[in-house]
Amino acid sequence: MALDAKLRIQEARKQRYANFDKKRKAMLEELEEAERADKQAKSAEAAKKQRYAQEAEQIRDAGRRMVEERQAELRRQQEEAEQAEKTAQEELEPPPLGEYPSPHRHCLDCFLHAS
User: Which residues of 27-53 are buried (b: 16+ CB within 10 A; e: fewer)?
Assistant: First the structure.
């Protein structure tokens, strides 16, 4: 009978430890699952932040290019206006004397020889 009691106690202890092991394994699996989910959430958040940073950089680059293109266009327009003004000014100035042959030079020669 003492042997029976001792065996029952040992069996009860094995059963208790087995139950503890089951609970421990379940808790461990739950913890690992929570850690995986947290890691995935952090990874997704980091990827989202990186996408936003890339988009912001692309927007800044596009804005910078637009400003540079606009400035280049304004410079080109200013240069064209200056060139047009210079051309108009040159057209208004009379040609320098003696530089161009007179189309009526022969008439002057005729006049001088006739006198």
Answer: eeeeeeeeeeeeeeeeeeeeeeeeeee
Whole-angstrom Cα distance, residue 65 to residue 62?
5
**pTM of the predicted structure, to 2 decimals:** 0.48
Q: Is 106 contained in some domain?
A: no
Asked whether residue 104 is assigned to any structural domain, the reply reads: no
Could you give the number of structural domains in the chain?
Answer: 1
Do 111 and 104 meet the contact criterion of CB atoms below 8 Å apart? no
Per-residue tokens: 20: 């503890």
| pLDDT above 60: residue 84 | yes
Residue-number span of the structural domain to which 7 is assigned: 2-81
